[in-house]
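Posting this for the archive.
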Amino acid sequence: MAQRMLEITGLNGWYGESHILHGVNLHVDEGEVVTLLGRNGAGRTTTLRAIMGLIGSRKGSIKIRGTEAVAMSTHRIARLGVGYCPEERGIFASLSAEENLMLPPRLAEGGMDLDAIYAMFPNLKERAQSQGTRLSGGEQQMLAVARILRTGARLLLLDEISEGLAPVIVQKLAEMVTMLRRQGYTIVMVEQNFRFAAPLADRFLVMEHGEVIQEFTQAELPSRMERLHEYLGV
């Protein structure tokens, strides 16, 4: 039996007085890739940020490997082996690619070393001494993901990693997700690019108005496409 990596129960979340999450329930088993689908404003990114403790306030339960984290601060959540790659990437423009990569501390055992990261992302090895501002959008995205792999995180929260990138880069990111899955990483993705997400995920969760309203597996995807058109307009 796979270990339950993440379990969220009755999660409510707020930005100031704005009530965004309305009782989110979901679980992710170790080694799974799960994609959160939904229209803009459905609460998908806020769910990832809530897991990391990056929203105004949250109530309910967020268990990471069985440890209750809903009241924890962000740095303690990271030490449970959680890595968050936000949509804005957060690359430091004045630092080289390698300096950006080496910036976060090791937080858990098993973080990838530079050789392993450069084997997975050859572009970053070639651009190791280039400033953050000189990297392409795709290289910045690779760097943002690679940076959390160094920390030892085994639960990866990836927010719109394919957005705005050329098809050839999107394909490389798909290969990366597949490789990480084979290595036993657990991945929760928020994706607007359904064509990118569809072949990668074990399960899909559809969010609307701050809650999960549908769940289905990769095998069920063909029979759910008509309903997905209704929810997502894809």
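The beta strands are 4-15, 18-29, 33-37, 57-64, 67-68, 82-85, 155-159, 186-190, 203-208, 211-217. The longest helix spans residues 167-182.
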